[in-house]
Design a protein that fits this description.
By secondary structure, the protein is α+β, with helices and mostly antiparallel strands. It has two helices and six strands; from the N terminus they run βββαβαββ.
Length: about 120
């Protein structure tokens, strides 16, 4: 098992790793719309939050020896079900023809009042 950290994504704010590589997979902790320097994008549209999250995920994947195209499973938490269409449109632009397994979970409030959180599992190598 290997812990992953990159300064190109937000540092963990609690007792967890950005990601863990184990048995050929990378497990990325839930990512919120926070810049690598700690800015919380609370007032940004959900599309911008989604893009930032996947930019952060891409940086963590790169540090672990993986890439967006190697993602096998995505879990998306959204605080407002009305944002589902906007999130999905942005998601399609990010992934193109790649279609990982996915779950979308409507929730109540997310940390810091952000609109979306994303967790992924990807193959490494």
């Amino acid at each position: 098992m290997k812990k992953i950290f990159t300064s190109n994504a937000p540092a963990p704010a609690g007792h967890y790793s950005q990601a863990i590589v184990s048995n050929g997979l990378v497990f990325i902790s839930g990512q919120l719309a926070i810049t690598s320097d700690g800015q919380k994008m609370v007032d940004s549209p959900v599309e911008d939050q989604t893009r930032l999250i996947f930019n952060n995920i891409e940086a963590i994947l790169g540090a672990s020896g993986s890439a967006l195209e190697q993602i096998v499973q995505v879990t998306i938490y959204i605080s407002d079900g009305d944002n589902w269409g906007k999130v999905n449109e942005t998601y399609i632009k990010i992934f193109g023809d790649h279609k990982p397994a996915r779950a979308v979970v409507p929730t109540r409030d997310l940390h810091y009042g952000l609109a979306i959180e994303v967790q992924v599992i990807a193959e490494v190598g």
